[in-house]
Amino acid sequence: MSCNFRLIAGLGNPTPQYARTRHNAGFWVLDEIAARTGASFSADARTRGAVARIDVQGEAVYLLKPMQFMNRSGGAVAALSRFYRIDCEQILVVHDELDFAPGTLRLKRGGGHGGHNGLRDIIASLGSADFWRLRIGIGHPRERTAVAGYVLTPPGPGDSVLLESAVVRAFGLFPDLVTGKLDRVISEMHTVA
After folding, report:
1. 150 is in an annotated binding site
2. Binding site annotation covers 24?
C-alpha cells in the first residue's frame, strides 16, 4: 500500500461559535499540523477556504479548511484538486466519526458518507468516493434524534482529553501519512484503542 497525499482537507464549520465543537475535529488536526510545521492559513478565493502549503520531500502538500459550512465542504475540495490536478487517491479528508469512541483514529479509502454531510458533499462534488479518510472518533449520543445537537456542542472534560490526544497522535502520524507509509500508520492506530 503506497500513496502520497497532496491535499489534506479538514472538515469543520467556520464561525467562532463552532470552533470547539465535536464537528470541528478535522479543523483541529489541520491547525495542529500548521502550528507544528510553521505553515499559516490564508483565505483563498478560488476555494472559498483557508489554505496552507507545506513542502514534504520537495513536494507541495496543501492543507485546506473549507470555509463554508460543513454541508458545503465539497466545492472547496473539488476546486483545489482541479486547480492543482490532484487525483482523488491523493486526497485525505480528516473528519469526525460518530461510530468510534472518542479519541479513536482510523484510516480508510473510499466508502459511503455514513450520514456525514461533509463527506456527502465532497463525494457529490468530486464525483467519486475514492479518496482517503482519517476518521476521528467523537462517540455517539445513543439517540439518533440527538446527533445534530451532539456534534455541534463541545465535548465534556473527559472526551476533550481523549480528542486532544487524538489530534496530537494524528500529527505524529503525519510524516508517514504524506510519504505513503500507510501500513505503518494503520498499525500504529490499531495499537492505540
Report:
1. no
2. no
- Per-domain residue ranges of the chain: 7-191
Characterize the bridge pairing of strands 7-10 and 91-97: parallel
- Residue 69 marked as a ligand binder: yes
Give kind and range of the element (H or E) at residue 59.
strand 59-66
Annotation: CATH topology of 7-191: Rossmann fold (3.40.50)
pLDDT, one tens digit per residue, over 65-85 is: 999 999 999 999 999 999 999
CB 88 within 8 A of CB 5: no
The residue from 23, 116, 140, 190 that is catalytic is 23
Whether 184 has a pLDDT exceeding 90, the answer reads no
113 noted as active-site residue: no
> pLDDT per residue over 37-54, tens digit each?
999 999 999 999 999 999
Confirm or deny that 71 is annotated as ligand binding.
yes
Q: What is the mean pLDDT of residues 126-148?
A: 92
pTM of this prediction? 0.93
